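Standup notes
- DV: blocked on the single-chain target, sequence here:
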Amino acid sequence: MGAPADVYENPTSSFVASFVGVTNLVSGEMAQAITGSPLTFSVRPEKIRLVSSAIQPSPEEYAVDACVRDVVYLGLYTRYIMSLEVGASLSLFSRT
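- DV (later): unblocked, structure below
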């Protein structure tokens, strides 16, 4: 329970994260590769940026190398499916 923005941005469980929208649930080896911890976290596709590897992340950001596996045009947004070196994938949305 909480304000809609708080529930969306800070879900208390994987069920809540998936129930209130599209999310990437990241855990285990993939979480370790991104954050240095295997603990599960949720990241919304619209919170992920697709940038050149030459761009350095800010102290509040994490970075991971990935390859574009699929691109789906959705009108206002384009959905990218990214393959990570650890064998997992993430979805991200970008304004078209």
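- Follow-up: The chain has a mean pLDDT of 90.
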